[in-house]
Backbone:
């Protein structure tokens, strides 16, 4: 077995010395003159007789195979930096158990050292012949030059480095085969041939006379990835035919007209509005946000994100400076006032039974919003999100008119929703804040803080849904009294007035 050694316990392995058979072999009847003379006057070599339990011996040898046998190693082909990296095949070895039984039976008692057992060579499935064939028929052609892909009047060359980056060569049934990554190949050809075909157009929604209308999707033309894979794989392995011609096929949009119709966007499922203060820059910010919200489609299971829809909240995105609350005081911020869109959109989703994902109330209560039912927003740290938990699509519509911000959600009514607001409790008093910022806005304060509970019950066909039915507790701080300037208690005491000189003495 080469350099591998193993020990067998003869008794366990079914090998035992048979003394009776050995004596019988030595004393058996014979009339040979030579044997008779040897028995009387000399010595006689008689081989020991072994008793063999063949089944036990084969079992012991089979157990030894686990560390005696060496598995063969298949040849491998990989690619790195546009070149082939080859792993050579290696033969394995396996103990020949039937032959080993014969050898041990004959020699286990008489051997003077380790007994060499017969081993057979095990060739790998992917041997040297398979490797040589693959190098000739796959690797050499693949690396020989570019493959030209043609689609109509457009063409592009895929260099060997590009092809090897998406290629694997694997074996089955004793032979290698080339596989190209279909997605990577399609992406490479699409990038190389951007004008091949026309992109399909997804169906969409618009509003006509205030109601949703489907804009039909349009088919395009493009390259069939499966056809592309087949012709490029063939050309890449040909030493002479290095052109892969593909025919443009009709390409359907990912979101078709039928998909849009199936969403069931046929009726208003909720509407909500909030009054606006008289602040023209703030109102313009809300008009900008409303235009971005209008037409937003939330498919079943998808989550609406206010920041993704109307952000970034920056001057560069068209918003204006207006009042907002930061660190408890009023300051001018980009897109100031869009928390009103957050609150209005939150309530539209809240009343439609949508799943509340993320929302946070303002730190102080503004009486233009329902207490305990409002949501602020801060880009990028705080979003307002709800998830469409219905089997229908939800289409948002928003506008600013008559001194109010409006949001309307279209779809198919699914949930029955009831909302109850409790009374205010846990009142707190105002505190005084000294603000030394140049943009300080003085505030008189005086409005108390409080807590409030709002309970939403969501039902379907008369059965309460516990997952989406919740009680929300909101706590607001009191409106502070803001004084522009430093805290007088932190100022150094005034210097004492100089003493007046004493009047001159009168004589």
Residues:
């Amino acid at each position: 077995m080469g350099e591998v050694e193993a020990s067998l316990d003869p008794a366990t392995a079914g090998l035992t010395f048979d003394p009776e058979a050995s004596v019988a072999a030595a004393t058996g009847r014979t009339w040979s003159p030579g044997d008779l003379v040897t028995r009387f006057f000399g010595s006689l070599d008689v081989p020991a007789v072994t008793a063999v339990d063949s089944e036990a011996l084969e079992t012991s040898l089979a157990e030894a195979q686990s560390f005696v046998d060496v598995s063969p190693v298949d040849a491998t082909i990989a690619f790195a930096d546009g070149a082939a990296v080859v792993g050579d095949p290696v033969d394995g070895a396996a103990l020949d158990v039937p032959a080993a039984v014969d050898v041990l039976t004959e020699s286990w008692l008489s051997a003077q050292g380790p007994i060499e057992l017969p081993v057979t060579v095990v060739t790998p499935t992917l041997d040297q012949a398979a490797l040589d064939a693959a190098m000739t028929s796959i690797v050499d052609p693949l690396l020989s030059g570019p493959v030209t892909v043609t689609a109509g009047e457009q063409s592009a060359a895929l260099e060997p480095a590009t092809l090897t980056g998406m290629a694997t060569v694997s074996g089955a049934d004793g032979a290698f085969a080339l596989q190209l990554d279909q997605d990577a190949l399609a992406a490479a050809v699409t990038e190389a041939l951007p004008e091949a075909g026309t992109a399909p157009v997804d169906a969409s929604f618009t509003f006509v006379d205030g109601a949703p209308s489907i804009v039909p999707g349009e088919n395009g033309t493009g390259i069939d990835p499966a056809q592309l894979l087949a012709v490029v794989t063939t050309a890449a392995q040909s030493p002479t035919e290095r052109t892969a011609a593909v025919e443009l096929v009709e390409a359907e949009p990912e979101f078709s007209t039928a998909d849009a119709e199936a969403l069931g966007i046929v009726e208003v499922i909720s509407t909500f509005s909030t009054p606006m203060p008289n602040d023209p820059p703030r109102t313009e910010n809300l008009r900008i946000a409303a235009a971005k919200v209008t037409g937003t489609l939330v498919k079943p299971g998808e989550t609406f994100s206010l920041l993704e829809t109307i952000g970034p909240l920056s001057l560069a995105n068209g918003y204006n400076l207006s009042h907002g609350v930061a660190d408890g005081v009023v300051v001018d911020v980009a897109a100031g006032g869009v928390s009103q869109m957050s609150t209005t959109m939150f309530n539209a989703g809240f009343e439609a039974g949508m799943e509340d994902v993320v929302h946070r109330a303002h730190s102080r209560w503004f009486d233009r919003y329902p207490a305990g039912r409002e949501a602020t927003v801060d880009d990028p740290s705080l979003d307002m999100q709800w998830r469409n938990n219905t089997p229908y699509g939800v289409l948002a519509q928003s506008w600013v008119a008559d001194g109010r911000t409006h949001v309307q959600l279209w779809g198919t009514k699914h949930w029955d929703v009831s909302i109850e607001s409790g009374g205010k409790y846990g009142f707190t008093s105002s505190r005084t804040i000294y603000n030394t910022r140049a943009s300080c806005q003085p505030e008189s304060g005086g409005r108390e803080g409080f807590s409030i509970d709002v309970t939403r019950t969501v039902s379907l066909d008369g059965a309460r849904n516990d997952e989406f039915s919740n009680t929300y507790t909101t706590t607001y701080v009191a409106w502070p009294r803001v004084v522009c300037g430093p805290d007088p208690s932190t100022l150094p005491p005034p210097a004492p007035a100089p003493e007046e000189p004493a009047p001159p003495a009168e004589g």
About this structure: Confidence is low (pLDDT under 50) at residues 36-42.
